[in-house]
Amino acid sequence: MTDKNVKNNDKKTELENTKEKASNNKENDLEENRQKIEGLNNRLLRALADSENLRKIHEKEKEDILKFGSSSFALQILNLTDNLHRAFNLFKNNEKFKSPEFKEILSGIEIIEKDLESTLKQNHIIYINCVGTKFDPNFHQAIGEKESEKEEGTIIEEIQKGYNLHERLLRPSLVYVAKKPKK
């Protein structure tokens, strides 16, 4: 071969090597870009999921504030309800107040008490019916035990009504629980 042919072959080989390197670089760059895009896509999906989770948490917190934000006020109303109930029972069970005039007053107090109970229910403040049920520390607070023929652990007397606000305990029932009589 002549020098010219060798130079041409070297140039061809060099050109082919350059094309091959360029092709390899393009493939490497393309693969690198695909990986970057995939990584960015994954980060975007995670960010969107985080954003959706935060939105759901915020909605739940807002819902809880609306549902349970009035619990302090509700407890105060329950104290008024208790006092009204005590007054009604005091008058109802006292012989001094059996006259017709007081019967009208008692009737008025009874109507107010029923309206108040209805208003409590409308605002999702629900009475916990407990007498005759098993004691549950999640809803009841025992203030003592009394001997009874009822099954041990059964609530036999309610001293103060308990209430739930929606599904959450607002105030536990104050109760006496049955215990076996001494022999």
Description:
With 183 residues, the chain is an alpha+beta fold. It folds into three domains: 1-68; 69-123; 124-183, Head domain of nucleotide exchange factor GrpE (Nucleotide Exchange Factor Grpe, Chain A, domain 2), CATH 2.30.22. The chain contains three helices and six strands; from the N terminus they run αααββββββ. The chain has helices at residues 3-68, 71-92, 100-122, and strands spanning 125-128, 140-147, 155-160, 162-165, 168-171, 173-179. The strands form two sheets. Strands 1-4-5 form a three-stranded antiparallel β-sheet. Strands 2-6-3 form a three-stranded mixed β-sheet, with no helix packed on it. Helix 2 (71-92) runs antiparallel to helix 3. The chain is rod-shaped and about 140 Å long. It starts with a helix and ends with a strand.
Q: Gyration radius, to the nearest Å?
A: 40 Å
- pLDDT averaged over residues: 87
Q: Please identify the structural class as seen in this structure.
A: alpha+beta
Enumerate how many helices there are, as a single number.
3
Number of domains: 3
Strand content: 15-25%
Describe this protein with a few key phrases:
three-stranded mixed beta sheet; 18% strand; three-stranded antiparallel beta sheet; alpha+beta; 3 domains; Nucleotide Exchange Factor Grpe, Chain A, domain 2; 183 residues; single chain
